Amino acid sequence: MATSIVSNYDQFLIDGRLQIVFDMETGDPDDFVTLLFLLGHPLVYLKAVTIVPGTPDQIGFIRYVLNRFNRNDLPLGVFDMNAKPALSKFHLKIYENETIEESRNALDGSQVLLTHCNEQTILICGGPLKNVAKAIQTGEFRLGRLVAQGGFAGDNIVPKEKRLDKFQGRITCPTFNLNADSIGAQIVLNYNGIKEKYFVSKNVCHGVIYTRETHNQLKKVKDQSQSLEEIYHVMSVYLDRPGKKGKAFHDPLAACCAIDLSIGKWQDVKLYMDKRTKEWGSILSDQPNVKIIVDYNEQKFLSTLFASHIC
Question: Cβ distance 132 to 177 under 8 Å?
């Protein structure tokens, strides 16, 4: 039976703020919105950022944004600086009147995770788990809580009334963040040096949509902080594009759950990949490897997303 969780956050708090590291990609705008969110949330101290793959166009863009927030001190790590350019065209439209230069000023992502993650840290992963898997392979990686966006819970796990229409009848499903590095995902799932693993999976996050109504709600509070102003700007650029009525908010949901686990309802499962289809699913097991989300509280999510920020 899925349960709401009232988590003890004391182990992650220093001076009243959660110690968080964010591992991200830039193929989709919602990772970037999540970064803006974490840079300003009053309960978050963002310790470090890592990027997949971490190309010079990505590094330059993220460094530009960190500079806007006066967070040049933030350690920035990458997986493969020499991969093909990975910054989406949409990101270039966000600050189109600014000159943003490419950069190679970044550290090895696995080393950043090894340095800044510990049992008092929450790691939020919005992309493929390449940096985390590489850190794990050193044998020295330790983490208090992982909140990863990815995975799938099907009809065998999700109550009928909570299933999204698009996933009705499915037990397994492809999931980008895990399929992009399935070996790395298995390394993470099998690793015992992470105390808690929460997966915010597509059976729920594909139903979390930032709409024009959401945008109007944000407009009322955006002047409370730089962080909310920047999110409003990004989503204004997005919604101004022809045919755009809303945007799935996968990673912001994961980040909000990392701050308040009671936003979600969670089921202990064994998350697995079907070797034949390469699709991912979940089964009930006496030896679960994760807690997976099966439902969420929309009002709690929005309250956390639009919390009065500090920046």
Answer: no
User: Encoding tokens for residue 63?
Assistant: 């460094």
Q: What is the pLDDT along the chain (311 residues), one digit of tens a residue?
A: 666 665 678 899 999 999 999 999 999 999 999 999 999 999 999 999 999 999 999 999 999 999 999 999 999 999 999 999 999 999 999 999 999 999 999 999 999 999 999 999 999 999 999 999 999 999 999 999 999 999 999 999 999 999 999 999 999 999 999 999 999 999 999 999 999 999 999 999 999 999 999 999 999 999 999 999 999 999 999 999 999 999 999 999 999 999 999 999 999 999 999 999 999 999 999 999 999 999 999 999 999 999 855 44
Identify which of 266, 263, 264 has the alpha carbon closest to the alpha carbon of residue 303: 263
Own/partner long-range contacts of 11-17 (Cβ < 8 Å, ≥24 apart): 11/119, 11/120, 11/144, 12/120, 12/121, 12/122, 12/144, 12/145, 14/45, 14/120, 15/45, 16/43, 17/42, 17/43, 17/44, 17/45
Residues 6+ apart with CB under 8 A from 44: 17, 18, 20, 38, 259
Per the CB < 8 A criterion, the answer to whether 171 and 274 are in contact is: no
Neighbours of 67 (CB within 10 A): 10
- pTM beyond 0.90: yes
Cβ(151)–Cβ(290) below 8 Å: yes
What single-letter DSSP state applies at residue 127? S
Question: Is 196 in contact with 145 (CB distance < 8 Å)?
Answer: yes
Could you tell me the end-to-end alpha-carbon distance of the chain, in angstroms, rounded to an integer?
40
Pairing status of strand 76-78 against strand 44-51: parallel
Query: In the numeric block, which tokens belong to residue 300?
Result: 């709690």
